[in-house]
Amino acid sequence: CMVTTDEVFAMFKDDADDPMNYFRDISTFGGCTAGPAAALENVAIIEEEDLLGNTMRMGARLVDNLHSLQEGHRVIGDVRGRGLFCGAELVADRVTKEPVDERKVLAVVADCATQGVIIGATNRSLPGLNNTLCFSPPLISTADDIDRITAAVDKALTRIFS
Question: What is the CATH number of the domain that holds 115?
Fold first, then answer.
């Protein structure tokens, strides 16, 4: 947005009689080919490197690993997800699904960070109900990466909830 005088504004017009003859070719995104070119190259890489297939394979491994953690940690009430976008809901009681204290969820996230593993937690939009650990590792994740993530979560859950 800009405010100016009529005299200065008139300098931007090629034809003073045409009310639509100003700033016609000025646009934040118009004519810039870098963004679309980068997007096309990204799609090509996703296809050439079978990142969708990797996402499904590593996502299945992540969910399986989280289910294994659920067997050893009663605090994990539910595991859900598809591909590499997964969650593990932390509960005080598996039957009632009462959420654990959010501070403990954040402590698990922080503990994982000290181990060099970045995970998230549901946002703070519903006080008292932000009890899900969120996982969204990169599309290029390997089996070792997934195992490292879940090993860090295992250690964090043991430290925080034991």
Answer: 3.90.1150.10
The answer to whether residue 34 sits within a structural domain is no
Q: How confident is the model at residue 128 (pLDDT cuts 50, 70, 90)?
A: confident
Answer yes or no: are the C-beta atoms of 88 and 153 closer than 8 Å: yes
Full domain range(s) for residue 147: 52-161
Residue 77 lies in a domain: yes
Q: What is the number of structural domains in the chain?
A: 1
pLDDT digits (tens, 9 = 90+) for 4-51: 788 877 776 667 677 666 555 556 666 677 788 889 999 999 999 999
Tens-place pLDDT, residues 146-158:
999 999 999 999 9
| Residue-by-residue DSSP string for 34-61 | HHHHHHHHHHHHHHHTTHHHHHHHHHHH
Which residues on adjacent β-strands are paired with residue 121?
A: 133
Q: Nearest Cα to 142, choosing from 51, 45, 47?
A: 51
* DSSP run (H or E) holding 151: helix 143-161
